[in-house]
Amino acid sequence: MYKYKKIALKVQKRIKDLKHFSDARLKQQTKRLRDQLKNGAKLDSLIVEAYATVCEADRRVLGLSPYYTQILGAVVLNYGNIAEMKTGEGKTLTATMPMYLHGLVGKGAFLITANSYLAKRDAEDIGKVYRWLGLTIASGVPEDDGDDESRDLKKIYSSDIVYTTHSNLGFDYLFDNLATKPENQYIKHLNFALIDEIDSILLDQAQTPLIVSGAPNVQSNLYQLCENMIQQLDEKIDFKKSEDGKKVWFTETGINNLEEYSGVPDLLAPKAHELYQHLNLALKAKCLFVRNRSYVVENNEIVLLDKMNGRKLYGTKLQSGLHQALEAKEHVKISDDSRALASITYQNLFRLFTRLSGMTGTAKTDADEFRETYHLNTFVIPTNEKIIRKDHADQIYATNEDKIKASLQEVQRMRELHRPVLIETGSVSMSKLYSHILLSLGIPHNILNANSAPKESRIIAEAGKTNSITVATSMAGRGTDIKLSDQAIKNGGLFVVGTERMSSLRIDNQLRGRAGRQGEPGDTKFYVSLEDKIVTENAPKWVKRYREKLVKKHVTSALKKPRIKNIINQAQGIQKNSEISERQNILKFDEVVKAQRNCLYDTRNQVMRSDDLDHYVDTAIHSCIDNYLPKWKNYFDITNFIYNNIDYSFLPNQSTLKDRWRDRKYLRAQLLNMIETKKQRVYKQFENKDQLLEYKRLVLLKSIDTMWIDQVDALEQLKLAVSSRNWGQHNPIYEYQHEARRAFHNMREKIYLLILRNILLSEIVQKDDGTIDLIFV
Ligand code: ADP
């Protein structure tokens, strides 16, 4: 930290000089710095000059001069670290410094947020500074949500600076790797990324990988059938749930019963694989997904809810048939089960960057995980003004009801003081309940469920006024900061009521951080009960008995015993550990896919860019033949192979192979000969060399993609299969690695065969305008 402070002080000193520069001269700095880079200067050596330049530009263009703490944060960010800066410290302005410096390189510097509204807004507002300094900047998100056509990808990804969302970048990355021409690949470099709210993106959203889906799988009626069968089963007898409620599996009795219901004698046999898989999906849908907590049913459709903030995730679907199983459970129309074409986790997407950094209000509590998993160190940046907010001790009650009553009394007290109040709940249903009670008491309030971001920021703008009461789900409205009116500050500032402790201390801290920004007064207090989710899911069994005893004795006041107070912290610790290991698991799964994906994307890129593809074609042909040779048992197998893959006009009875096919050496030579002759005949149809090269390229890419897409889809299915089995002694990751490797090997063989077949048997249609159409077999 000492090193960084020294640099920050130098920047401050240098700003004083730049104040005397004319606008024109200050703008010249960009060219000067770029020239220095061109002449071999290291980027890090330009930090003082570049940072001072932006700071001065910030003042002239936006009317904001970065504070020392912001400059210090910005220095920390340059070196691939996480800067923890509290809410209201001005992270948006802080970002201008590292973004400008890395923008100078011209290889694209990315500012990533989770919220497309913020990406657009900041690209517009903050973008003025970069433009003023002569850099290009673009927003990577569509103008209107969902209207993807409005994006000019070429322009976006050739800009010096891009403000975008993690999902837009991720999908563009995956689509780039499905392109067949280099011109259709837009992201040139993954050089520098600064992730805003990095904890939200790398920790909270790590559970859902990005998946590009394509043409639907064949629709099956098994979903409804399996759903019906599952309804007849009993928990504990037919199936069991793990203690943390995250896994569920059939018992032996369950399997026997299902065999009886379905009339299938052996459900575990490979023949019944599909049925068994659907039964597992139906079981998961029944046990692991709770209506109105994990999803809602709206207009005859399932809409998933974000685990953290209760946002409705329109357009997001569970993968690998789980979504359809859920639809069957709710008796709504079963949608097409699409297949995965390409997938990547956010963790691995961001690990592709040469330098990665992040900022957030809350990272220190999870610093170990950031260091171990991402090699990112966390630095806590001091606040610009001293924090005077009071964080009160938790108020603990036996039951939910007592807790809610007590918290509402506090809200009433604050109302009498005319202070703004923010009630933070852990779920949509809880915030609805609070809203309902407030309404019945005649207390006006806003409810923030985060359905649309622009509306969200209007509610947030209201939330800092006197008498204003806002009910919000935990993470809604992150990234927009509650500003207090002068009167509200005089009355004591914002009062945050937490209605339950969240899944981690980090998220609790996020909620607390809403109050007391920039040295303002404020209070936070959590109301907790022994019936809260975090307690019932993670606390030891005696807690339940203890609670029942209290209820019997009609104890409704706050509980004071230290032993009880500890329960919440312990429960949170257990929850946190299980989330960490879940994230690590996901990473381990994706590690396997990553190796395969890298290998495949490398080959694809070589094929896309190479001028000589004969080597690829010949390797495929030879490997294919050598792979098949030992497998053929009789002449029929061989003729079948020739007929399907080499030559439709092959006449088995007139071939010399008929009598000599047992001689493998002879057979091999003859086949290669036959292939060569056919290949030359195909190649002759192309008039010019470029067309022929393009033909080979398309055949190779098409063959690779067809099989890789199958593989991606199969890996998704496999992941689901290994994690839904009750493994006992087995290690699911190990099984997955093993199976995935085998599948990859098979895929390679299949690609070789497809190349052979596509090269020799595609239909080539010459069109009048000189172009050609290809119809692959
Ligand atoms: P954070 O993301 O850290 O919570 P924001 O970037 O939303 O904070 O900034 C909070 C508010 O502080 C914004 O209204 C911003 O304009 C203001 N602000 C930031 N930096 C400064 C500064 N150096 N001087 C004055 N106001 C600032």
From TrEMBL:
<feature type="domain" description="Helicase ATP-binding">
    <location>
        <begin position="72"/>
        <end position="235"/>
    </location>
</feature>
<dbReference type="InterPro" id="IPR044722">
    <property type="entry name" value="SecA_SF2_C"/>
</dbReference>
<keyword id="KW-0378">Hydrolase</keyword>
<dbReference type="GO" id="GO:0031522">
    <property type="term" value="C:cell envelope Sec protein transport complex"/>
</dbReference>
<keyword id="KW-0811">Translocation</keyword>
<dbReference type="InterPro" id="IPR011130">
    <property type="entry name" value="SecA_preprotein_X-link_dom"/>
</dbReference>
<dbReference type="GO" id="GO:0005524">
    <property type="term" value="F:ATP binding"/>
</dbReference>
<dbReference type="Pfam" id="PF07517">
    <property type="entry name" value="SecA_DEAD"/>
</dbReference>
<dbReference type="GO" id="GO:0006605">
    <property type="term" value="P:protein targeting"/>
</dbReference>
<dbReference type="Pfam" id="PF07516">
    <property type="entry name" value="SecA_SW"/>
</dbReference>
<keyword id="KW-0813">Transport</keyword>
<feature type="binding site">
    <location>
        <position position="481"/>
    </location>
    <ligand>
        <name>ATP</name>
    </ligand>
</feature>
<keyword id="KW-1278">Translocase</keyword>
<dbReference type="GO" id="GO:0005829">
    <property type="term" value="C:cytosol"/>
</dbReference>
<dbReference type="GO" id="GO:0017038">
    <property type="term" value="P:protein import"/>
</dbReference>
<feature type="domain" description="SecA family profile">
    <location>
        <begin position="1"/>
        <end position="559"/>
    </location>
</feature>
<dbReference type="InterPro" id="IPR014018">
    <property type="entry name" value="SecA_motor_DEAD"/>
</dbReference>
<dbReference type="GO" id="GO:0004386">
    <property type="term" value="F:helicase activity"/>
</dbReference>
<dbReference type="GO" id="GO:0043952">
    <property type="term" value="P:protein transport by the Sec complex"/>
</dbReference>
<dbReference type="InterPro" id="IPR036670">
    <property type="entry name" value="SecA_X-link_sf"/>
</dbReference>
<feature type="domain" description="Helicase C-terminal">
    <location>
        <begin position="403"/>
        <end position="563"/>
    </location>
</feature>
<dbReference type="InterPro" id="IPR000185">
    <property type="entry name" value="SecA"/>
</dbReference>
<comment type="similarity">
    <text>Belongs to the SecA family.</text>
</comment>
<dbReference type="InterPro" id="IPR027417">
    <property type="entry name" value="P-loop_NTPase"/>
</dbReference>
<dbReference type="GO" id="GO:0008564">
    <property type="term" value="F:protein-exporting ATPase activity"/>
</dbReference>
<dbReference type="InterPro" id="IPR036266">
    <property type="entry name" value="SecA_Wing/Scaffold_sf"/>
</dbReference>
<keyword id="KW-0472">Membrane</keyword>
<dbReference type="InterPro" id="IPR001650">
    <property type="entry name" value="Helicase_C-like"/>
</dbReference>
<keyword id="KW-0653">Protein transport</keyword>
<comment type="subunit">
    <text>Monomer and homodimer. Part of the essential Sec protein translocation apparatus which comprises SecA, SecYEG and auxiliary proteins SecDF. Other proteins may also be involved.</text>
</comment>
<dbReference type="InterPro" id="IPR011115">
    <property type="entry name" value="SecA_DEAD"/>
</dbReference>
<dbReference type="Pfam" id="PF21090">
    <property type="entry name" value="P-loop_SecA"/>
</dbReference>
<keyword id="KW-0963">Cytoplasm</keyword>
<keyword id="KW-0067">ATP-binding</keyword>
<dbReference type="InterPro" id="IPR022490">
    <property type="entry name" value="SecA2"/>
</dbReference>
<dbReference type="InterPro" id="IPR011116">
    <property type="entry name" value="SecA_Wing/Scaffold"/>
</dbReference>
<dbReference type="GO" id="GO:0005886">
    <property type="term" value="C:plasma membrane"/>
</dbReference>
<feature type="binding site">
    <location>
        <begin position="88"/>
        <end position="92"/>
    </location>
    <ligand>
        <name>ATP</name>
    </ligand>
</feature>
<keyword id="KW-0547">Nucleotide-binding</keyword>
<keyword id="KW-0347">Helicase</keyword>
<feature type="binding site">
    <location>
        <position position="70"/>
    </location>
    <ligand>
        <name>ATP</name>
    </ligand>
</feature>
<dbReference type="InterPro" id="IPR014001">
    <property type="entry name" value="Helicase_ATP-bd"/>
</dbReference>
